[in-house]
Please model this.
Amino acid sequence: MAKSTTPNKAAAVRQRGVTMNDVAKHAGVSRTAVSFVLSNRENASISEETRTRINDAVQALGYRPNAGARALASQRSDWYGLVTEIVTAPFAVDIIKGAQDQAWLDHRFLLIAPSDQADAVGPNQGLEDAAVEKLLEQRVEGLLYAATFHRGVHVPESVHEVPTVLINCFDADGKLPSIVPDERAGGRVAVERLLQAGHSRIGVINLDPRIPAAVGRLEGAREALAGAGLELDPELVVSGYATADGGYEAACQILDRYPKDQRPTALFCLNDRMAMGAYDAIKERGLTIPGDIAVIGFDNQELIAAYLRPKLTTVALPFEKMGALGVQTLAALTAGQPITADQQLVDCPLLERSSV
Amino acid sequence: MAKSTTPNKAAAVRQRGVTMNDVAKHAGVSRTAVSFVLSNRENASISEETRTRINDAVQALGYRPNAGARALASQRSDWYGLVTEIVTAPFAVDIIKGAQDQAWLDHRFLLIAPSDQADAVGPNQGLEDAAVEKLLEQRVEGLLYAATFHRGVHVPESVHEVPTVLINCFDADGKLPSIVPDERAGGRVAVERLLQAGHSRIGVINLDPRIPAAVGRLEGAREALAGAGLELDPELVVSGYATADGGYEAACQILDRYPKDQRPTALFCLNDRMAMGAYDAIKERGLTIPGDIAVIGFDNQELIAAYLRPKLTTVALPFEKMGALGVQTLAALTAGQPITADQQLVDCPLLERSSV
DNA sequence: TTCGGCGGGTAACGCGCGTTACTAAGTAAG
DNA sequence: CTTACTTAGTAACGCGCGTTACCCGCCGAA
Model:
């Protein structure tokens, strides 16, 4: 095939890398000694002199340990598997970042495999099972299972063979530990912020009321209002599609329904995309943000929130933190901590920008 | 530590998984036979009967091959390494998706390691080298190196130990093959679209003129105009920060500089964030999109382009395709194809929405 | 002198699997 | 009846490393 003379060393002869044995010979010691030094065992007695001889040999030969062989011999791979639809539908990528960073700190590797939960009945049916299977073949020590949006999920059977933690979703069968955003506290903090800014008549642009996010955030809003001695006016809550268009329409409804002096002075949009649409509705009516109407969002989709004009004050979904926490939890489990099915709630911090 | 009685099988006794030997015993044959069957070797002669006996045993015992051991014995890992800052700054996540999908098809695994090119002088100095080192310890057969935005990069020395392909960036030292978007063709197609819609006076909101994306896209715009017998009026090209604010200001300049009848009727924004700002400037002046001013963007940042109102017509950066192509190219290299330093250009398709 | 302990190592087994001999029985050709 | 060739398999080595059991020489104590 390769007729050109351009060298491709790596492929031409898959050159035997330098092994521990080579190092041992070079240093004039046994391979065992090398092993002891490299994994600096406490109770091994190697003189300082040979120790440096060995280290020198490692340097000289450019020795690089073979992780696979080590895994085989030591019966531990230092790998976690992350199976997620985020690979196919990147919305919550920061989960990967958080998990990756934490894993890196813990000297572990993340094997990322694609899932496709979203249309598990579609053509990709089985992809997920296959992914888990592949990960188990790699002898991962634990599994992380992450979703793009907060919801209940059914996981493949085989995840139970190994410690598993769910991220941004929870086990519909109630057996596995999970890590999810504290939607309720987030909703509370959002509305409290509006109250604090002097608003008392607050419109809510709601998501599909059946999803956990909507339930939690709305509940939080209610709590915040209650804390100020107010109640949530059901008339001020309008649901819409979770898009800019949906937000636009919902905002139009709310804004046009009342005479000027009864109009809400603030909108709590349950996600940033809807806030984006609400912006248009508000501007279209010649109103200013936050002067006439304050807007607060949810999700902190950077691309929207940070680039809207004025920049959108919003509640952030703690993807990165959830990812990190997932790895930490998994580390505890693989270390032998008993597996329970509890949910860890992670705070959704308020991000102050300029729309309130 | 674990005082609770909740079981944690996986950690309690790291139970020896069932091995090929177990399967062999169960089927009453030698391990070799099992190996032959499982890797269904052509030239091995195993009777149909024992073949099914073995397969049955595999099923019965729930045997799962140990990928690590296989890699060790066969001297091939089936792993590619992907080192990228995308993990830390997710903008071009779709590269990962494309690569992942293709790898999956090729029965290979992607080991994703973080880089931090962006601030390679910062606290993460060395992260990248460490990442490559770790990947090599895992005996990856090839490396993918991806950047979040199109530019020249310097790669760690050790990548040369193994076939390597750059994605969305190119080797500043001119040694490695790379895969980059065809910015020029993209710029051309964008402006051609505007010309086709009848616009001849086109304003350009430019990026920092030094980056490859700006150079290419502008060049393409120039070509398109030349194709229509027009020239690019330098006065109509305004550079700004690559943000919504930058786009807003640049658009203001262009729109306010001319009397109504000399005003450009279309804006080519070199990225979607700037287009987002341009939208505001246009709407603020009581103008409509695309009625009074047509707008076309670049990048296809879904979160912006698909949610702006009207939805933004834009040129897509082919992240996913580049990722896939990266894996394919790597596959060819690891198969022995000679390594050359050429760049593969990938088309940037026009995405028609509603702003033209 | 003998015994035990200690510092400084090493031989050798096994991790789970791919692979290359090699064997043993059956069959066909000479 | 040999010889040769196929069919159906197996024994055994090695991949690179962790780990356990053991060994050897030396020194101080009994």
